[in-house]
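Researcher: I'd like a candidate sequence for this fold, 342 residues long. If you have to choose between options at a position, lean toward the conservative one.
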């Protein structure tokens, strides 16, 4: 029998259904598995924890918190913007810009139906100014805490320092797959054989017959893919069953590894490139002197007087004979003019 079949999923679902305010607590050292699984539960609770039988429960007051930094590696997970750094805002905290030992006495009174808080400083200590007083909020307003991937309070980080009584007088549920049995949680969903926290979350959602949307399913798939290195590590039959369930409800695989959609820019040259073989157009023929088209070895030696002392009739004759054949050699020899006999 699989270890997951022995885990208290039904009891966990009942606790969640009865809770009015829920805090999902992520570890300080974040992973894709813990973040994506926590967000999947967060979105399910915000959506009303809708059941397959059509019964839609009222949306709960739910928050998700981590002391760690949510880096760009998690930015494509659905709901990631909801992860907060502070655990709550139930109580007003007044901070004085002075040392603790400088305060002699703190008292309160009721004047004109208003609550007054008086702070008396020790003798020799300067009185506080308005600029020395700061206001903030602290305190968990939750009756159920759900931890993701932690076995002790040491993994919570700064939040446990701010809220030392975080787990006092509250029910808590822990999801864990690594290390020893967690000392956190009244209810422990711990399975070292599970591939991921997401695999345990799928078992919980299926046991409670919770209807999820494609965004939640995509987060769960991303968690399983990251934890198993794309199904090459700790992938079992339960793992592939969880994958199939997520894909049936519209979950998308490779959501984190696939490139972000971007506008495709077509090079400008593609619009002007002809589809047929380009035709090189011959240049328009220019009228040139045959002498200019001949090489130096082919050019005949022309007597100086004939090239410099051309008459207009000779220039016209040369222009009209541009395309004729090369003249014979004796054409350049001196001619003797013999006039007709009178």
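Model: Candidate sequence:
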């Amino acid at each position: 029998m699989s270890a997951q079949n022995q885990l208290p999923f039904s009891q966990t679902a009942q606790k969640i259904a009865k809770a009015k305010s829920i805090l999902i607590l992520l570890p300080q050292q974040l992973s894709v598995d813990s973040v994506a699984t926590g967000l999947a539960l967060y979105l399910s609770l915000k959506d009303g924890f809708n059941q397959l039988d059509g019964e839609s429960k009222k949306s709960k007051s739910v928050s998700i918190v981590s002391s760690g930094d949510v880096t760009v590696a998690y930015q494509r997970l659905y709901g990631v913007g909801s992860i907060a750094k502070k655990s709550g805002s139930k109580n007003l905290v007044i901070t004085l810009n002075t040392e603790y030992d400088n305060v002699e006495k703190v008292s309160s009174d009721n004047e004109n139906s208003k609550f007054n808080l008086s702070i008396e400083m020790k003798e020799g200590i300067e009185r506080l100014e308005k600029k020395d007083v700061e206001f903030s909020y602290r305190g968990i307003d939750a009756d159920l805490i759900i931890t993701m991937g932690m076995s002790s309070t040491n993994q919570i980080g700064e939040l446990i320092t701010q809220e030392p009584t975080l787990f006092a007088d509250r029910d808590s549920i822990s999801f864990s797959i690594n290390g020893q049995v967690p000392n956190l949680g009244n209810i422990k969903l711990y399975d070292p054989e599970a591939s991921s926290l997401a695999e345990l979350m799928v078992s919980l959602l299926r046991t409670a017959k919770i209807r999820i949307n494609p965004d939640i399913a995509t987060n769960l798939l991303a968690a399983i893919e990251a934890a198993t290195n794309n199904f090459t590590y700790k992938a079992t039959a339960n793992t592939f069953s969880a994958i199939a369930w997520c894909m049936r409800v519209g979950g998308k695989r490779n959501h984190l590894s696939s490139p972000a959609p971007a506008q495709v820019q077509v090079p400008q040259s593609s619009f002007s490139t002809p589809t047929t073989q380009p035709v090189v157009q011959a240049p328009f023929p220019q009228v040139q002197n045959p002498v200019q088209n001949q090489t130096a070895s082919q050019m005949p030696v022309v007597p100086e007087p004939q090239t410099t002392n051309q008459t207009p009739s000779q220039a016209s004759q040369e222009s009209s004979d541009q395309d004729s054949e090369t003249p014979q050699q004796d054409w350049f020899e001196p001619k003797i003019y013999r006039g007709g006999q009178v």
